[in-house]
Specification:
Layout (H helix, E strand, L loop, with lengths): L8 E7 L8 E3 L1 E5 L2 E2 L5 E4 L18 E5 L2 E6 L3 E6 L7 E5 L2 E7 L2 H11 L4 E4 L24 E5 H8 L15 E4 L10 E6 L2 E10 L6 E2 L4 E2 L5 H4 L11 E10 L1 E4 L4 E6 L5
Length: 275
């Protein structure tokens, strides 16, 4: 099966070191079994040790993380920055994500105080333990750090273009927080049909459609919720059997390695859409 009339390539790679916070565009990335190196390696939790996200705290969109060796720095335009030495050795504590139990290593009081000021409520930062074990579901199970579900989210430019033809005001790609953006597929939602794909040194396998949540209504440049779009428009043509609306696809990592912007996206197996 061929779903495109021309070759597809990677146009953007994005890592999100802290779940819910701003992403980092990369020219080259190392893909691990958990996804792009450092992706969702950290998570912000409340005073009940439940995860925070842009669903309830849209301000996280304008908190920018960066990792330099064993140091993590968080930056906000109004609140400045805080740097912590990444702790990967302390005893993990119990945290929850979507009410499911996980383990995380607390990153200390300084970053917790800074985040609490930014968010306006008690917050702490935890890291994935080195021996973190998690099995993600879908057609091809895999693992991930603190990502919502699968390790890698792929979205094509044609899929976004198809949505934007239906919108009064076009939305940028960052509303959907993909890890890999693909250019060159002629038809919107071609990623729905991909089952096995190699990019650079990596091999990925399809797990599920990406079911979208209210995070897509957050303006990523301002850190504020911006009405009901795109969920309202997606509801007119992308309702999924899994409940909700689908936009993009999730993948597990079969083989890791290096991949770069400009790499060919080589689909070896195609399937039918689960929509």
């Amino acid at each position: 099966m061929s779903a495109t009339g021309r070759s597809a390539t990677v146009s953007e790679l994005v890592c999100y070191p802290v779940k819910g916070c701003a992403g980092q565009s990369l020219d080259t990335a190392r893909m691990t079994v958990r996804g792009i190196e450092h992706d969702r390696e950290f998570m912000i939790v409340d005073d009940d040790f439940a995860f925070r996200s842009q669903r309830s705290d849209p301000v996280l969109a304008v908190v920018t993380p960066s990792i330099d060796g064993d140091e993590l720095t968080l930056t906000h335009e109004e609140f400045g920055s805080v740097t912590c030495t990444i702790d990967r050795r302390s005893r993990p504590i119990d945290v929850t994500m979507f009410r499911a139990p996980f383990l995380g290593i607390d990153q200390g009081d300084d970053v917790a105080s800074w985040l609490s000021e930014v968010v306006g409520e008690a917050s702490r930062l935890v890291a994935v333990p080195s021996d973190f074990h998690r099995v993600t579901d879908g057609i091809t199970p895999g693992t991930a750090a603190f990502a919502d579900s699968s390790a890698v989210h792929i979205l094509s430019e044609s899929t976004l273009d198809g949505l934007n033809t239906r919108m009064d005001a076009p939305l940028p790609m960052n509303r959907f927080r993909p890890n890999i953006v693909v250019t060159g597929w002629d038809d919107p939602h071609t990623e729905d049909l991909v089952r096995d794909v190699s990019i650079g040194e990596t091999e990925l396998a399809y797990t599920k459609l990406a079911i979208r949540c209210p995070v897509t209504t957050v303006d990523q440049a301002r850190g504020v919720r911006d009405g009901r779009e795109p969920l309202k428009t997606l509801g007119t043509y992308r309702k999924a059997r899994q409940k909700g609306v689908a936009f993009g696809a999730k993948f597990s990592v079969v083989d890791g390695g290096t991949l770069s912007v400009g790499d060919s996206v080589n689909v070896t197996t195609w399937g039918e859409s689960e929509l």
